[in-house]
């Protein structure tokens, strides 16, 4: 999470959406950088609204606006699959070694997910309790030009992004049947991604 105090802007870091690269580029410009613990770095909307927003409002007598990046749900799961496929997780319950990507997506859609498929939810991160978008500005990972234009306008800087926290390269495809199941079982994941196009 990055806080830009003078600009009254808070960047909420949705995991696996390129936030590590953005934080690396923008941290020197930020007033506050929350890197650890992960619960603070990746504070979801509900956690931010409950704890940090009131603190910032009382501390500075100002209302902060929020922004975040959302990734296409299939690509987001690809990134998680790759991340959990790395060598240092072999033999760990979170490892995706020996599991096909279709099976990983299917496991993610279950009510009771096995450990390797417990990766959170972009929708739960970004939507409030009523299903409304909980951030002021949402950008699709797949449209970096729109995000960069916003950052340039709001912060007066266009960050140079370096690839950080990159998952191992793997060619992954989801079958049409499994993608249809994903869309049917988790429609909110696709709905929140579509909200980032506005």
List the SSEs and their pairings.
Blueprint (H helix, E strand, L loop, with lengths): L1 E3 L4 E3 L7 H8 L5 E2 L4 H4 L3 H16 L4 E6 L2 H11 L17 H9 L12 H5 L10 E4 L3 H12 L20 H10 L1 H9 L3
Parallel strand pairs: 2-4, 4-5
Antiparallel strand pairs: 1-2, 1-3
Helix pairs in contact: 5-8, 8-9
Protein name: Sulfotransferase family protein
InterPro entries: P-loop_NTPase
Total number of helices: 9
Task: Please name the CATH topology.
Answer: Rossmann fold
Q: If you compute it from the alpha carbons, what radius of gyration comes out, rounded to the nearest whole angstrom?
A: 17 Å
Bulk shape: globular
Strand order of the largest sheet: 3-1-2-4-5
Number of strands: 5
What would CATH call the class?
Alpha Beta
Name the average pLDDT: 92
Helix share, percent:
40-55%
Q: What is the architecture at the second tier of CATH?
A: 3-Layer(aba) Sandwich
- Report, as a whole number of angstroms, the end-to-end distance: 23 Å
The secondary-structure class comes to alpha/beta
Q: Tell me about the biggest sheet?
A: 5 strands, mixed
Query: What fraction of the residues are assigned to beta strands by DSSP?
Result: 5-15%
Q: In sequence order, what are the helices and strands, one letter per element?
A: EEHEHHEHHHEHHH
Provide the domain count: 1
Name the poorly predicted regions: none
């Amino acid at each position: 999470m990055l806080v830009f105090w003078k600009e009254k802007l808070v960047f909420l870091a949705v995991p696996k959406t390129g936030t590590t690269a953005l934080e690396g580029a923008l941290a020197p410009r930020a007033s506050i950088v929350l890197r650890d613990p992960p619960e603070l770095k990746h504070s979801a909307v509900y956690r931010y609204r409950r704890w940090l927003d009131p603190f910032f409002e009382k501390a500075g007598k100002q209302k902060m606006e929020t922004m975040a990046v959302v990734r296409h749900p299939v690509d987001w799961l690809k990134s998680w699959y790759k991340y959990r496929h790395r060598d240092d997780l072999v033999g760990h319950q979170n490892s995706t070694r020996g599991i096909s990507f279709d099976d990983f997506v299917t496991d993610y859609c279950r009510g009771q997910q096995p450990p390797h498929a417990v990766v959170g939810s972009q929708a739960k991160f970004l939507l409030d309790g009523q299903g409304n978008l909980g951030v002021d500005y949402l950008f699709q990972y797949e449209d970096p030009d729109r995000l960069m234009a916003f950052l340039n306008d709001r912060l007066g800087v266009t960050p140079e992004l370096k690839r950080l926290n990159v998952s191992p390269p793997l060619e992954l495809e989801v079958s049409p049947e499994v993608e249809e199941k994903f869309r049917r079982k988790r429609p909110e994941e696709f709905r929140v991604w579509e909200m980032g196009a506005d």
